[in-house]
Amino acid sequence: LIRAALPRLPLLASLAAVVSGGLALLGWQTDVHALRGVAPGLVPMNPMTAICFILAGLALWILTQDNTGPRDQNAAAGLALLVAFVGATKLVGLLSGHDLALDQLLFREKLGAGIGQLPNRMAPNTAWNFVLAGSGLLALRLEQRGKRSWSQILGLGPLLLPIAVER
Q1: 156/131 Cα distance (integer angstroms)
Q2: Residue 113: which residues within 8 A CB-CB, separation 6 or more?
Q3: Cα torsion 73, 76, 80, 86: sign
Q4: In a 3-state reduction of DSSP, which class is residue 107?
Q5: The whole model's pTM is what?
Q6: CB-CB neighbours of 118 under 10 Å
Q7: 57-106 pLDDT, tens per residue?
Q8: How many Cα atoms sit within 13 Å of 25 on the Cβ side?
Q9: Are 8 and 41 in contact (CB under 8 A)?
Q10: Helix (H/G/I), strand (E/B), else coil: 121
Q11: How many CA atoms lie within 13 A of 166 on its CB side?
């Protein structure tokens, strides 16, 4: 059963990323708070985070298809690069004190802090995970099929980060 499911995992992961990002954007657009987050009670997903999920999901789907040509593969690499760029820009902004506020471009009037609340911003760990995910997807494009060690190593980063942070 597991062996039969393995080839479908990239499709399922890309679908989950696109759907969760799309639902969050729909929640911001329609003011349906329940759609803005992954689960009730959690902090709502920032709109730029939702866009990065969609871009990463699309890149993963394209890069793992057998019948795509170089043009599609390059487009997917561009999406992956954009995901990594957004994450890196956010991190550099936080570290330097000169945040470009990419995470404040969409739905700016809805992101402001209410009484007793902080404004909705992309978290630093989310930005770092986008750097890793975008870089891993880019490595997937650049590596030969069957030799995906860098993309796999970079892909493990977001999974291992919460473990490292807790300790």
Answers
A1: 12
A2: 119
A3: positive
A4: coil
A5: 0.80
A6: 8
A7: 999 999 888 888 889 989 999 999 999 999 999 999 888 888 777 777 77
A8: 17
A9: no
A10: coil
A11: 5
